[in-house]
TrEMBL record:
Protein known as: mannonate dehydratase
Annotated PANTHER family: D-GALACTONATE DEHYDRATASE-RELATED, STARVATION-SENSING PROTEIN RSPA
Keywords: Carbohydrate metabolism, Lyase, Magnesium, Metal-binding
Biological function: Catalyzes the dehydration of D-mannonate. Has no detectable activity with a panel of 70 other acid sugars (in vitro).
Pathway per the UniProt entry: Carbohydrate metabolism; pentose and glucuronate interconversion
Species this protein is from: Alteraurantiacibacter aquimixticola
Listed EC numbers: 4.2.1.8
Xref: InterPro entries: D-mannonate_dehydratase-like, DgoD-like, Enolase-like_C_sf, Enolase-like_N, Enolase_C-like, MAND, Mandel_Rmase/mucon_lact_enz_CS, Mandelate_racemase_C
Cofactor(s) listed in the protein's UniProt record: Mg(2+)
Length: 402
């Protein structure tokens, strides 16, 4: 079996997506997602100019060897651009293998470990009251787990808050929107939000919260402690993880569970966090961390330390990633939860898929492969539109982590 052609499609059905199609001499095509929010064309070029010429004529069934060739075989390795490209190839090759086998992808991984995949949705509001209401709407839709983000008094354009009634889409302008961050205001406000949520909805709904790398380790420990009474499912990205040891300071001082890893690209980014049991959930994804092939390694390492998966699933990961992730989630023994930010109707129409939501869970389909395709004709109607993620500064102008 040989790869005969590969193509990159960039489209913007409501937001930008980069999709890789790998064609074979058996007439079977595999599809992978290569979207890197705000840096889409860098990955498209990495694929088109540097990866695709290497794919032609190779055997697509040699998935592991291809991974090693593209990662180890590349002298300049690691980072989100390379690993998003490698992930797209890997996802496309698993799609081809499963289609050739006539099986849904989870079967090739070892079969089902569960019947359905617990997901969390995104509730947000401009004020505490609006956020409480938004969480209620998610409960009404059947969600068992809900992430709550809120506008913060005195902070303009807080992280995670949608403008209008739309889903939250942070990449909102061709050049980054400037936002302002104030840690003391946030630390005073966050416990009030979760106190109000528990008061309104009781003990049962799982509540999650994303700190989005904004705090120092000590501040993160303060936040974690102040939220302990409200029993969060997790506190996400409490501090940047470049220095993995920083999490020791948080870990030693609070029992609030910690989730990290949506921006990680390899097992090396998470190694110390996992081996020292500094986190509870690892958020690496099929798309950002080397496809199914590498994510499986990360999940296996995590399983040794009773750390569970909680894959990133924001809307900037296309339905192709969601489809592949759901097969992974259906198989992976140490599954925790899957993020599920709903895509827009335009996005869903461009990427027909066989997964579905019911009663707070996503169910992957039984179509051979990962179950997601692309309608190329429709995609062509939505050309690429430049959009970058915002940046954050402190009130005095100092650049901060967004
Ligand atoms: C999340 C994330 C996203 C990111 C986005 C950046 O937990 O869902 O933090 O909302 O901000 O993926 O492109
Ligand atoms: Mg996040």
């Amino acid at each position: 079996m040989k790869i005969t052609a590969a193509r990159v499609l960039v489209c913007c059905p409501g937001r930008n997506f980069v999709t890789l199609l790998v064609e074979t001499d058996q007439g079977v095509t595999g599809i992978g997602d290569a979207t890197l929010n705000g840096r889409e064309l860098a990955v498209a070029s990495y694929l088109t100019d540097h990866v695709i010429p290497n794919l032609i004529g190779r055997d697509p069934s040699r998935i592991e060897d291809m991974w090693q060739f593209l990662y180890r075989g590349s002298y300049w390795r690691r980072g989100p651009v390379q690993l998003s490209a490698v992930s797209a190839v890997d996802t496309a090759l698993w799609d081809i293998k499963a289609k050739m086998a006539g099986m849904p992808l989870y079967q090739l991984l070892g079969g089902k470990s569960r019947e359905r995949v617990l997901v969390y949705g995104h509730a947000n509001g401009g004020t505490l009251e609006e956020t409480v209401e938004a969480v209620g709407r998610y409960i009404d839709m059947g969600y068992k787990a809900i992430r709550a983000q809120s506008g913060i008094p005195g902070i303009e354009k807080a992280y995670g808050v949608a403008r209008g009634t739309l889903h939250y889409e942070p990449a909102d302008a061709a050049l980054p929107t400037e936002t302002v961050w104030d840690t003391p205001k946030y630390l005073r406000f966050a416990p009030k939000l979760f106190e109000a949520l528990r008061k309104e909805y009781g003990e049962e709904p799982e509540l999650l919260h994303d700190v989005h790398h904004r705090l120092t380790p000590n501040e993160a420990a303060q936040l974690g402690k102040s939220l302990e009474d409200y029993r969060l499912f997790w506190m996400e990205d409490p501090t940047p993880a470049e220095n993995q040891q920083a999490f020791r300071l948080i870990r030693e001082r609070t029992t609030t569970p910690i989730a990290v890893g949506e921006i990680f690209n390899t097992i090396w980014d998470a190694k110390e966090l996992i081996e020292n049991q500094l986190i509870d959930y690892i958020r690496t994804t099929v798309l950002r961390a080397g496809g199914i092939t590498h994510l499986r390694r990360i999940a296996d390492l995590a399983s040794l330390y009773q750390i569970r998966t909680g894959s990133h699933g924001a809307t900037d990961l296309s339905p192709v990633t969601m489809g592949a992730a759901l097969h992974f989630d259906t198989w992976v023994p140490n599954f925790g939860i899957q993020e599920y930010m709903r895509h827009s109707d335009e996005t869903d129409a461009v990427f027909p898929h066989d997964y579905h939501f019911a009663d707070g869970f996503l169910h992957c389909g039984e179509t051979p492969g990962h179950g997601v395709t692309i309608d190329e004709e429709l995609a062509a109607k939505y050309p690429y539109s430049p959009a970058q993620l915002p940046v954050a500064r402190l009130e005095d102008g100092t650049m901060w982590s967004w």
